[in-house]
Amino acid sequence: MPGNDQSGPLTAPDAATIEGYARAALAALPEPFAQHLGDVVLLIEEFADEETLAALGIEDPFELSGLYHGRPLGAKSSLDSGTLPDRIHLYRRAILDEWIDTGVALDALVTHVLVHEVGHHFGLSDDDMHALEDSVKD
Predict the structure, then answer these.
(1) pTM for this prediction
(2) All residues at 6 or more sequence positions from 109 whose CB lies less than 8 Å from its CB, including other chains
(3) pLDDT, tens digit, for every residue of 7-21?
(4) CB-hemisphere CA count at 13 Å for 117?
């Protein structure tokens, strides 16, 4: 039937798809960034939990697409033993909502969110994060 083409995927991309895009973006990061990310845990979740949203003062879980939990690399010390590993959380539903709203390619959007969170791990400025993101695209 004309106008009723359903030949594309009929379900939203799953967590494994988002993780695949994120891992590809991590693999594309230039040195010295890549060598300092081996211990960072990547988590793909549907939404941020209520505690995280409350701590950030966010009411709508669709407003948070990613989050870095940890101390920036430059603030770490040898005395930091016994702490949880640094973590990058990507929130699938918020990313998908932004993907639909913006029309940006999903892999590019996941890369954007991931690089932003990686930037927090390194204590980068927004300008530095944009430069890092551009290096991943090249």
Answers:
(1) 0.79
(2) 95, 98, 99, 102
(3) 666 688 999 999 999
(4) 27
Q: What share of the chain is helix, strand, coil (3-state, %, to 5)?
A: 50, 10, 40
**CA angle, corner 62, sides to 112 and 57, nearest 5?**
100
Tokens of 79: 């005395």
48: alpha, beta or left? (left if phi > 0; alpha if psi -120 to 50): beta
Strand (E) or helix (H) holding 87: strand 87-91
Q: At what angle do helices 106-122 and 92-102 cross, to 10 degrees?
A: 130
Closest CA to 80 of 93, 67, 89, 71: 71
